[in-house]
Specification:
Helix content: 25-40%
Distance between the termini: 43 Å
Structural class: alpha+beta
Shape: globular
Number of helices: 13
CATH class of the largest domain: Alpha Beta
Largest sheet: 8 strands, antiparallel
CATH topology of the largest domain: Rossmann fold
Bound molecules: guanosine-5'-diphosphate
C-alpha cells in the first residue's frame, strides 16, 4: 500500500443500530447492491444457505431466525472502503452488541417512521451517546403512511436527547409519497419518474421548483417547503464539529425496501461520517492511525465459524499502522509474541485471506485460545494497551451444573474457556460454591448451552434465578451475616464479593440496614 494516509481517509467503519423490523437488513442489502457485492437484494439473509450455514453458530441463527453474530461486511462505494459491523437487533441481544459499538467510528440509526423510537433503539443509542459516537438517523418505510416528520424529529430530540438536522425532507408519504426534497444537493428525488422519465428535478437557487413543473402546484410540495422552513428556522445549524462530537444527528428520510433515498443517503453519510481516528491508551496517550506502529484490539471472539475445525476467530479492529500478513505482534497482556499468519478479512461475499489492512479495517485472527476480549496487539517495541472495553453488569442469572456428574472435567474446561472469551459472566455462591451465570440477555444463556454441548460435549442444566441487581461490596466491609435469601452473596471470577439483590426494595432495605456499607454497580 503506497499511501497509508490516503487509505485511512477512505475508510468508513460503522454499525447500523435499530429495533427489530425497522429495516436494518433491507438497508444493508441495498448498500451491498451499490457496492456491487450482491446482484440482487435478498442475499444477506440468503447467505445462511451458503457455506456459512454449515457453522454451528449459524444453526442457532437459523433456528431462531435472528442474527446472533455481529458479522462484518466490507465493500467499496463512491471512492470509500466501507466496513459495516452488524449488530443484532433482537431484544435478547448480548454484550457482543455493545462491544461491537466500541469498534466503530460512527453509527447509523434506522427507525421505522410509522413507529418512531422503539425500546431497542433507545437502549443501543444510550451506548452511542455515552461514547460520543457520531450518529446519523434514517427514518425508513416512507412508502408507508407514517407519522408526521416534524413529530418524528421532535421525538428524536426529546426521547434521545440529541440535536437533529434534516438533510432531506419527505414530500408526502405512503399513498401520496411524491419524493424527497434533498436540501443537501438542492434537488427533488422523485419517488416515481415523471412523464418525461426523469427521476430528479434540479431546484432553483432559492430551493424552489422552476415554474411550469406540475409538482410546484401540488399542495404536498408546498407543505414540505413550509415544514422545511419551519425546522430550519427553529432548528439547529449543520455543524460538522457537533456531528463529530455525537451531539448533532443528521436526519434522512427514505424507503429501504423500494430503494428510495438510500443511495443519496449513503453518499452524503460517507461525506460527513468520520474516517478512523486516534484511540486512547490506559495511560491517556493518543495512538494516531497514521503511526508506523501497528496496533489493534480484540472486540469480539467467535467460535467455530467452520465446524470442521474447533477454532475461534478473534475480531481485531486495527487502530494504527499497517497490517501485513505474517507480521509479528505482541499480545500486551501476556507480553507474548504472536505471528499473524492465519488472518481473514470479511468481504461481503467471501472470507478471503488478507494480505494487508489499515486502520478502520477489521481482521479476523484465528485463535486457539490465546485471546481475550479487550486484548491489545501491537508491533514494534513500544508497549500499547488500549483502554478497557466496558463490561456490562449482568441482569439475568442462572445456576449452572453438569447434567452428568461423571463429566466434570469437560464441564469445567468449557466454562473456563467460554468465560475467558467473554461469552458470559461467571460467579460462585459464597458458601456452597455453586456456579452461577450472569448475562445481559437471555440469548447469551442459549448460546452458552449450545456451545457447551457442541464444543465441549458437556450437557448442562440451567436453573433460572430471574432478574437480579448485582452490587459489589468492599471486601473489608463484608460480613457474611449480611447475606439473606433476598440478597445472595456470591464471588466473581476475580474472587471479589458481590450481592445479587432480588429487586430494588431488597437493595434499599439493605442500604437502610447497613448505611455505612458502600455498594458499587460495577467492579
Ligand atoms: P431488521 O429486523 O431491522 O433487519 O428489518 P428487515 O430489514 O428484515 O425488515 C423488516 C420488514 O420490514 C421486512 O418485511 C421488510 O421487507 C420490511 N421493510 C424494510 N424496509 C421497508 C420499507 O422501506 N418499506 C416497507 N414498506 N417495508 C420495509
Amino acid at each position: 500500500m503506497s499511501n497509508i494516509t490516503d487509505e485511512i481517509s477512505k475508510r468508513r467503519t460503522f454499525a447500523i443500530i435499530s429495533h427489530p423490523d425497522a429495516g436494518k437488513t433491507t438497508i444493508t442489502e441495498q448498500m451491498l447492491l451499490f457496492g456491487g457485492v450482491v446482484r440482487e437484494a435478498g442475499t444477506v439473509k440468503g447467505k445462511k444457505s451458503g457455506n456459512f450455514a454449515k457453522s454451528d453458530w449459524m444453526e442457532i441463527e437459523q433456528k431462531r431466525g435472528i442474527s446472533v453474530t455481529s458479522s462484518v461486511l466490507q465493500f467499496d462505494f463512491d471512492g470509500k472502503r466501507i466496513n459495516i459491523l452488524d449488530t443484532p437487533g433482537h431484544e435478547d441481544f448480548s454484550e457482543d452488541t455493545y462491544r461491537t459499538l466500541m469498534a466503530v467510528d460512527s453509527a447509523v440509526m434506522v427507525i421505522d417512521s410509522a413507529k418512531g423510537i422503539e425500546p431497542q433503539t433507545k437502549k443501543l443509542f444510550e451506548i452511542v451517546k455515552q461514547r460520543h459516537i457520531p450518529v446519523f438517523t434514517f427514518f425508513n418505510k416512507l412508502d408507508r403512511d407514517g407519522r408526521d416528520p416534524l413529530e418524528l424529529m421532535a421525538e428524536l430530540e426529546d426521547i434521545l436527547g440529541i440535536d437533529t438536522y434534516p438533510m432531506n425532507w419527505p414530500i408526502g408519504s405512503g399513498q401520496v409519497l411524491q419524493g424527497l426534497y434533498n436540501m443537501y444537493d438542492n434537488k427533488v428525488e422523485l419517488y416515481k419518474a415523471d412523464a418525461n422519465g426523469n427521476k430528479e428535478i434540479p431546484l432553483e437557487a432559492d430551493g424552489n421548483i422552476a415554474d411550469g413543473n406540475v409538482l410546484k402546484e401540488n399542495k404536498i410540495w408546498r407543505d414540505a417547503l413550509d415544514e422545511v422552513e419551519l425546522v430550519q428556522m427553529a432548528g439547529n445549524q449543520l455543524d460538522e464539529d457537533a456531528i463529530l462530537r455525537g451531539e448533532l444527528s443528521p436526519v434522512f428520510f427514505g424507503s429501504a425496501l423500494t430503494n428510495f433515498g438510500v443511495e443519496s443517503f449513503l453518499k452524503t453519510y460517507l461525506k460527513y461520517a468520520p474516517a478512523p481516528s486516534a484511540k486512547h491508551t490506559v495511560d491517556g496517550d493518543a495512538v494516531e492511525p497514521e503511526s508506523d506502529q501497528f496496533s489493534g484490539f480484540v472486540f469480539k471472539i467467535q467460535a467455530n465459524m467452520n465446524p470442521q475445525h474447533r477454532d475461534r476467530i478473534a475480531f481485531v479492529r486495527i487502530v494504527s499502522g499497517e497490517f501485513q500478513r505474517g507480521m509479528d505482534v505482541t499480545l500486551g497482556r501476556e507480553n507474548k509474541k504472536i505471528r499473524l499468519s492465519n488472518v481473514t478479512q470479511f468481504m461481503a461475499d467471501s472470507r478471503e485471506n488478507v494480505e494487508t489492512a489499515v486502520p478502520g479495517d477489521i481482521i479476523g485472527v484465528y485463535d486457539t485460545g490465546t485471546f481475550q476480549i479487550g486484548d491489545t496487539i501491537f508491533s514494534g517495541k513500544k508497549q500499547i494497551q488500549f483502554e478497557d472495553l466496558p463490561t456490562f453488569t449482568p441482569e439475568l442469572f442462572m445456576r449452572v451444573s453438569a447434567k452428568n456428574v461423571m463429566k466434570q472435567k469437560s464441564f469445567h474446561k468449557g466454562i473456563a474457556q467460554l468465560v475467558q472469551e467473554g461469552t458470559i459472566q461467571l460467579y460462585s455462591a459464597w458458601s456452597s460454591g455453586d456456579y452461577i451465570l450472569g448475562a445481559v440477555g437471555q440469548l447469551q444463556f442459549e448460546v452458552f448451552k449450545f456451545r457447551m454441548e457442541n464444543e465441549y460435549n458437556s450437557e448442562i442444566v440451567l436453573e433460572p434465578m430471574g432478574h437480579k441487581i448485582a452490587r459489589w461490596i468492599n471486601p473489608e466491609q463484608l460480613d457474611e451475616k449480611m447475606a439473606s435469601s433476598r440478597n445472595l452473596l456470591v464471588r466473581d471470577r476475580f474472587e471479589q464479593p458481590l450481592f445479587l439483590f432480588e429487586n430494588q426494595f431488597a437493595e434499599r432495605w439493605f442500604k437502610d440496614k447497613y448505611p455505612k456499607v458502600e455498594l458499587e454497580s460495577k467492579l
